[in-house]
Predict the structure of DUF5682 family protein.
Amino acid sequence: MDEITPDNNGFSQALAKFSQRYLHDEKVRWLPVRHHSPACAHFALAQLNAWQPDVVLIEAPHSFGQHLSLLQNKQVVPPIAVYQQQSYFPFAENSPEWQALRWAGDNHVPVQFIDLDSTDEQQEEPLDRYSDARILSSSYSSQLQQTMGCRDADELWLRLFELQNFESANDFFEQVLLFCAASRLYYDQKSLQQLGDLDREKQMRACIRAASHDYQRIAVMTGGFHTSALFDYEQESTSIRKSTEDSFVIRYSDSLLDAHQGYQAGMPYPAFCRWLFEQRSLSACDWLLYLLAQMPKLTLIAKQNVFEHLSQLCQLRGIVRAGCYDLLDSLGSCQFKQQSSSRDYRPWQQLLRGENMGQLPANQRNLPLVDDVLAHCKHVQLTIGTINRSHFSLYELTERQRQRRQLLSQLLFLDIGFCQYEQSMHAFYNIHTAAKHESWRYHWTPSVEVALIELSTLGGTLKTVVQHRLAQQSESDLPQMLDKLMLSLQLGMQYQFNSVAITREINDCSTIKILSDSFIKLYRTSKHPLFNDYHQQLDALITPLWRRLSFHLPSLNQLPEDEALQVLLSLQAIARQQMDVLKQPWRERLHWLIEHNEHTPTLWFALKALAVDLDELDPASLLNELQRYSGDRFTILRTLLTVVPHWLNHQNGLLSLLNHSIEQLDDEQFVEQLPQLRGLFCDKDAREIDGISQQLGTLNQWQQQLNWLNEDISEHDVNQAMLLDKQLQQQLLEQGLSAWTTR
């Protein structure tokens, strides 16, 4: 400050002036508050009852007046919030603004909202307009925290105002005014202009001036940071800016009110603040007993210890009643004999935070799109209000379950935060026939209602909004078209996809990878019970896609070997499932590829193995050919173990060939091949390894079988082995032997 600094006489003089102005206005009773302060709510009621004003002026956007009858409706249970332009104005039971509204309704006193709407603000630096950071983070507050030994600004506020007794409401509000005014003196005019405070205060002064012409007794409730700037309302010449900006009353929740959860205008632990307001009349002793009664998991002895500890702690800290920080400190001191972590406090913190969610009357003004979605939820029997799960047996879906899953899919697609498919969003596009069960988690929150309100610009019904969003999905190539197809079917919007356009794209596609992936995905989709009603539409696409894929299979060599093998394996599996339709065409393509295409040795042996296996022939001739092969035999063996793993069990099959190949190696060659050999069997389970060990014993005529399963191994031995394995892998990596760590 240029004119006044906390270190000169001007600071004290300014505060004395504010105190005098507060006490000597004949028309106005000033109610400087911290939003959601239980003490402010309590003393606001006391002041209103004593003053009996003709009108109550409240710092809230002017357009909120349209909701006044609803806000004063007895059926409305906080926490609730008014939502406008991506900002919230919450009300809790312990909010002074809420108690003032209810008092005015009960006493038939008019209410006026005197702040600018969010769209009328012109601050240079956008900030949460109701944030308490201006008073709690000021240098004045920081100095007091240090002096009083408080861990943060919230504890300072609690000690100064919530946990003390005051002689009167006038005395309380004067102290709040002086605290907030002292914090304000640390801000210069430029800062206040940038934060938007000056324009808002002009509006407030103009409203107070207008009310002073119409009423004799006025109560003005504003954030304490602004109150000292409103005393000169009679000199304000600015016109009142009225707005018709739309806004909506929505349900809110305790978790969203919590300052520790990121709400900048909140108090810590909303449930505790509610108790503090409701039980203000209790004696200090009864208040402690009440708090301990809210801690259900404490034994009687534990409660007695905490009671004694907390009583002494309050005396030590100079407070009349215990606060949330004091309670947690005593709980920690009495319950934990050793060093504790933040995790230990979470159950108590959750109790203090609360789980309440507001309630609105059934006949309230309709919220765009929200009512339609709630009606759908009710129809499919989704429970609203708590975290819930829905489990589906996909092969035994009832009609109601199918409708429920479709609704969950639609809301997940809209990304409004209502539900989560516990195997993530990609499952929309990768349906596997092996997926027999599915689990969803869903939770209706205030943010869900807000998201739906914002989406209502696209339409007033869920169906319309989903259609609009679906139409925006890109479909510039075949994979995107098929993704959109699968999405449309799951959302119940099958008429949204263009089968003619997809067929055209199939016929124009010549990329083997895209064609193979698309065919596999479409085939799996057609076999999943979720799509039983769409077989005709899907088959109409599968047929031309198979023809196109079959025509371009000769370009398989363009793919990396691993990808080419995966394509072949998938097509072989599909051909086996569709023996009556695809076995013969697939056999013909396999033989054509073997006879007419140039392949790498690995791919050639894989194609031959698939052809032999499809016709259920003896693999001996192919394995003999491999035995005569002079190249990298182990790579091909590894490929065959991937393509036809059951050949390991054939007499004179892959295991016999592998055993014979190893016998031909000298020590140096064996060491060189050992990493690849290790990789051949690392994916086998214990039963398979046991069978392989027995076959090896027979092949090599070992008198004593391999005892790879040691029944005497202890849990300690296993842990030591795992640690040793980890250390060995690290050493191999450091020595550049990463191939040895391949699993």
